[in-house]
Amino acid sequence: MQKTVVEFNQAQRGEKMDIRAGDVVKIHRKIKEGDKERIQIFEGMVIAVKGGQSSSQMITVRKVSNGNGVEIIVPVISPSIEKIEMVKRAKVRRSKLYYIREKAAKALRFKFTDLSEKEKVEKVEKQEIEKTEEKKVEEVVEADKKEATEKVEEKK
Fold first, then answer.
1. For 88, which of 2, 24, 36, 78 could close a Cys bridge (C-beta 3.0–4.6 Å)?
2. Residue 91 contacts by C-beta under 8 Å, 6 or more apart in sequence?
3. Residue 115 CA to chain centroid, in angstroms?
């Protein structure tokens, strides 16, 4: 029974985002004001991820704005969320970073890795792989054409 529930939740999730505590993310939220709808970006550090096996994880994101700490708790999959964009990833040793609430923003010294550079490298690598695959396909198609023309010539 437990396995079927987990499989159902994973199917509902769609593409899986690897969000962990310590990640700096940009959350693009849809805000409805009267008849108009706009997108507001909230950038902060993920301090907790809850509901790991459920159909929609909940993440707690914290940022310091004008000296005040602001936290939002957001479901990862929601119609009000346009997208979640990863900015940086910190090396942390805990799954819940609630202790950073008491610390000043400058007192937090995490080692960050910039994901935008990694994503660029991954895109370039994917493009190179796709090019090599296309070349292989073209070679196979050309070989098939040569074989077909040889068979036609033999029949004549």
1. 24
2. 22, 110, 111, 113
3. 10
Task: Report residue 26: phi and psi, to 5°.
Answer: -110, 120
Q: Which of the 8 DSSP states describes residue 68?
A: E
Give the contacts of 43 (CB within 8 A, at least 6 positions apart).
Answer: 24, 25, 26, 27, 63, 87
Q: Give yes or no for a contact between 45 and 61, defined as CB atoms under 8 angstroms apart.
A: yes
- pLDDT tens sequence across 63-88: 988 888 899 999 988 889 998 988 88
Q: What is the pLDDT of residue 26?
A: 93
The 8-class DSSP code of residue 54 comes to S
> Has this prediction a pTM greater than 0.70?
no
Identify whether the C-beta of residue 61 lies closer than 8 Å to the C-beta of residue 86.
no
- Domain segments of the chain as ranges: 2-110, 116-156
Amino acid at residue number 138: E
Phi, psi of 103 (to 5 degrees): -85, 150
Which tens digits make up the pLDDT trace of 39-58? 999 999 999 999 876 767 89
Which 3 state secondary structure label does DSSP give 89?
Answer: strand
